[in-house]
User: Which sequence fits this backbone?
């Protein structure tokens, strides 16, 4: 009677293949998590910088309305078209002279009987809104 001896190397080879598949799957999952974290980090950075830019522009606008400080002297790169003031930024949030395809902020004024309001909005290169805020001044009472 002849017994069939199985090779132990085929079992070892199957075990190695299963371990490699497990590591490949784990690596794919980790890469997806890391890429998602990178996208969220970039979006968070952009939103933070956009909020700082909007707050700075709002403060300059208030100074222009209340103290008579010229907005254009604070933001010499700003342009005005149809009553909307636009300020341009490059990809590193440095002020630019013209639109370079990175970020831009707009200021739109609305006046009524008691207040002068400004809507400040910051957009990315695709035109998506990153941050917006409304600020107002009262000519006879100061900042509201």
Assistant:
């Amino acid at each position: 009677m002849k017994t069939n001896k199985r090779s132990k190397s085929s079992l070892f080879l199957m075990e190695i293949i299963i371990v490699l598949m497990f590591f490949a799957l784990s690596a794919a999952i980790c890469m997806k998590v890391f890429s998602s974290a990178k996208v969220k980090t970039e979006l968070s950075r952009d939103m933070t910088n956009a909020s700082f830019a909007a707050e700075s522009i709002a403060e300059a606008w208030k100074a222009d309305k209340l103290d008579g400080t010229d907005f254009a002297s604070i933001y010499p790169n700003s342009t005005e078209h149809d009553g909307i003031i636009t300020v341009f930024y490059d990809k590193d949030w440095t002020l630019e002279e013209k639109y370079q395809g990175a970020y831009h902020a707009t200021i739109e004024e609305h006046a009524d009987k008691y207040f002068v309001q400004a809507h400040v909005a910051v957009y990315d290169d695709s035109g998506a809104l990153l941050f917006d805020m409304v600020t107002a001044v009262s000519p006879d009472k100061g900042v509201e």
In short: The mean pLDDT is 87.
